[in-house]
Amino acid sequence: MMNISAFAQEFKYHTVKKGETVYSISKDYNVSEEDIYKYNPDSKNGIEESSKLVIPLATKDKGMPAKTGSSSLDPVNFKEHTVKKKETLFSLSQQYNVEIDDIKRYNKQLYSKELQKGETIRIPVFRTLDRVVAKPNNISKEEIRQKFDKNEVREHVVLPKETKFGIARKYGLTVKELEALNPTVDVLQPGIMLRVGTNVSPDPVVLLDKNFKFYEVKPQETLFGLAQRFHVTQDSILALNPIIEQEGLEWGMVLKVPNPEEQDPENWVTPTLTSEAEKLQGDKVNLKDSLSNFSPKNLVFMLPYSLDKVQVDSAGTAAYKDAILDDRVLRISLDFYSGAAMAIEDAKELGISSQVKIYDTKRSASEVINLINTKNFNNVDAVIGPFLQSTTEAAAERLRIKNIPVFTPLSDKEMSGGNNLFIARPDQQTMSNTMLDYLQKFGKEKNVIIVSDAKSFEIKNKLSQIFPAARSVNAVDGYVSETSLKRVLLPATPNWIILESSSVGVISSTVSALNRLLRDDLDITLFTTNKNDSYDNESISNEDLGKLYFHYPSVDKEYNLEFSENFIKKYQEEYGVTPNQYAVRGYDLTMDVLLRLAASKDIYSSFSDYKGFTEYNENKFLYEPQPGGGFRNKAVYILQINPDLTLQIADDSQSNIFREFKD
């Protein structure tokens, strides 16, 4: 062991012994696992015997006692403090007897900016350590007997299925004290008499069911450690064991705790509410709850502005307005970065500061190569852009040697470039496969009907393999008749129509015919694995699609006004318009990159640290390795159009959900 000191924070080096885990080491030093991971990020992937860990010890100011606050504990309350002139984080830490890091932890904007006069911040209030650390109880059995001889005792008749743990808990004893009072009793038998104390709990002796068990507190255990061990909050431990609040935590104390062998692991943490459709792609991850790396992030945006092509009039003024109106790629670039800029500002409120550089690629691969050769990319954490395939491949190829991740935000094309290339948009194959997974999961016991034309034979074959009993309706001369559909529809049964075609005539005739058949009180739902441009034809109305609860895969969803209210309001105040899909994508992608960098040591580590998808206003991200190298976003929404023309994420967890909804 070796002591090192830095900035009034004390550390120790710990050499890992055989069989030790991060959890056991955190218990030995009375720190949280989170604190060990903070200073040893590689330990998240496991620790090996003889490896060395930096262990942060209790923080002490010179000449002052250690503060009672600790980042290894959860606060029991918060105080609001309005910052006065000349107040500093240090003075506030002295005033409230908490650590500066704890103030920052609950006011994350203070990681990236100074304390401001008039600003209101939250000050965490912690329990004192002497009430949550198990104190040794070295009293001998003889001393226990003498102690109780001087005080009143009572007798307890043992009931069937009672244990020493349960009886000790009932009378506020440790098991050691119960055994000392009854030295001749080895094994409990129903009907025998035990000497016990008079401090009787109001709870009945038989307290437990399969979801709970008794646990005897070990030396130096903490309330925080017990909460982690049993996957509940500290308040839950206190609610089950109010004696801790009264007497503190003591070695040998018998606690009522959840039984991990009987608990469903999915219920250890409050689950995120997601639809059954979304669960096909794993659990949702909220990176804002896991921020730990607050070093400034270095971002580079490579965008196809092509400002060199903007014409300049005789007065020497660039005609930017006309250029923007005439150039769609330039408009998209500006919209995208307007959203990205808002994400960068919002990230500051979370304590994530950024240093940003913007380069114009001029839509040229050679210009991208020139930028990388002439600009300093040594400390860049991530590159967002370029948009086009040729410029993206050039950037990824040249930055691969530096292992700098390159995120291309809008293109879904297959690209080469190496393992540092991240394609942030799912391709059509990914969307079709996600829809197939959805249909396979929820299409059981449905009357499945496949409507297709000759060009859609490949997807029809896949659907036929999933649904061998499915009925088929083939388009004839670019048309699907009402009669052919009516023959295969069943009454009093959910009819799932899977429409596969890119022909306007096939789609239009099918949708119109199905709407007419709804008059026969049939339960009909329409699906496709590919909502192509033909669905936007004026002959196909959204009203007709809504009546059929049309389901389709999508890269993005409509933003939820309630969830995104702050973003939309701030965007409108800044730019005077409602954000379009490119602005929202700029925000969502940039925020995801910044949060990943702040929740892990780098982008690559974030994918091993956090499994599942992330989600923001309109977009979600689930990157998976590509066979040819690099990563692609595989997160897809399954959306449905409702009769009132609202869009929602589909959820067919109940087979009769549509029938109930229509009724």
TrEMBL record:
SUPFAM superfamilies: LysM domain, Periplasmic binding protein-like I
GO function terms (MF aspect): lytic endotransglycosylase activity
Transmembrane segments: none
Keywords: Signal
Listed InterPro entries: Leu-bd (IPR028081), LysM (IPR018392), LysM_dom_sf (IPR036779), Peripla_BP_I (IPR028082)
SMART domains documented for this protein: LysM
Positions of the LysM domain: 12-55, 79-123, 213-257
Family: Belongs to the leucine-binding protein family.
Protein name as catalogued: LysM domain-containing protein
